[in-house]
Specification:
heterodimer, A: about 160 residues, alpha/beta, 5-stranded parallel beta sheet, about 35% helix, B: about 170 residues, mainly alpha, 7 helices, extended
């Protein structure tokens, strides 16, 4: 029998200032039978929510007043204060230009989805973070999901030599 | 000597909790689930178009505000608001089928994102974008539009490139 995802077991935190975007995401998640969704409108509130509640997946906008979604990723991945440095983070944003994608990736985003988005794209990313978790890399200047999507087999002492 | 990167194996707690073989949604999106999810987005259509039209009104108000108060602070606040509103339009349009709103919204957002001051010429360019966005919304032009709409988008692209060239440091 094929694998399935029971989304009712998964809790979400949505971080977005836009009320309509948040509501649409909530409605989509409700259709997928998600019951535990919390939404906040700022990075500071997201920090508080993550400290208070058990959250499985964060979905964050990039552009917000005061602090951006990239600041949130940085805090989650690198702060000693972070309650879970390995929590999956999906960035869902209209800031879709390459510079934002690269910055989010280099801070440790798990998945990036540009607005406008379609439901297939969102679903694929949800499946990816739940069913196909990625290894993490802990390096001098980076802590986050392994940024290499293609796994190259290697036998040597240094994985970078595998090309 | 640089510290070697440590590879931490994938964490399986979420997978263990949610993935099974009896209950839930297939990993591959089924046509039935896609239909239901698409319906959810369709239901949000009117709220999104209403929000976009309110943002267009707000952007006109911002331009009036900046024209009435030519201080640097007013310009700074105005630019931040214009950036935020155009970004929301760019992000919302295509989600509800108005790809042309996204294309013009992106042009406006790119344009505003490069500005450091708001002067009359720049405000006229912003107004042209707002007018075009109004036309798309009022005429309910879904998708990317036709030949004329394509020419409008190309013209905005050329306008953006021209201003980017003018504003670039030499």
């Amino acid at each position: 029998m094929a694998e399935k995802i029971d989304f009712s077991k998964v809790s979400f935190l949505i971080v977005d200032q836009n009320r309509l975007s948040t509501q649409l995401l909530r409605d989509i998640l409700a259709m997928l039978e998600v019951t535990r969704v919390r939404s906040v409108t700022s990075v500071e509130r997201a920090r508080r929510a993550l400290r208070q509640d058990l959250v499985d997946i964060v979905i964050t906008e990039c552009h917000m007043d005061d602090e951006s979604g990239i600041d949130l990723i940085d805090w989650v991945r690198n702060s000693s204060d972070s309650p879970d440095r390995m929590i999956p983070i999906i960035m869902l944003t209209a800031n879709s230009e390459q510079e934002f994608v690269v910055r989010a990736r280099d801070k440790g985003v798990t998945e990036f989805l540009a607005k406008p988005f379609n439901v297939e794209g969102l679903y694929r990313r949800l499946v990816s973070v739940i069913a196909r978790p990625r290894a993490f890399v802990n390096a001098e200047e980076y802590f986050g999901p392994d940024r290499r999507r293609r796994q190259v087999p290697f036998n040597g002492p240094n994985r970078r030599d595998a090309g | 000597m640089a510290k070697r990167a440590q590879i931490i194996p994938p964490r399986s707690d979420l997978r263990r909790k949610a993935v099974n073989r009896t209950k839930g949604f297939d990993l591959k999106l089924t046509p039935e689930t896609l239909r239901k999810l698409t319906e959810v987005v369709h239901r949000a259509h009117d709220d999104f178009t209403s929000d976009i039209s309110q943002r267009l009104v707000a952007m006109r108000d911002i331009l009036d505000f900046v024209r009435a108060d030519d201080s640097l602070e007013a310009g700074r606040v105005g630019l931040a608001r214009l950036y935020a509103d155009s970004l929301e339009i760019k992000g919302a349009g295509g989600t509800i089928g108005y790809d042309l709103l996204t294309l013009i919204g992106k042009s406006l957002n790119d344009f505003v994102g490069r500005l450091t001051v708001l002067e009359e010429t720049e405000m006229r360019v912003i107004e042209l974008h707002i007018d075009a966005l109004y036309v798309v919304l009022a005429n309910r032009i879904k998708g990317a539009g036709g030949e004329i709409e394509g020419e409008v988008v190309d013209a905005f692209r050329a306008l953006n490139a021209k201003f980017a060239g003018v504003r670039s440091p030499t």
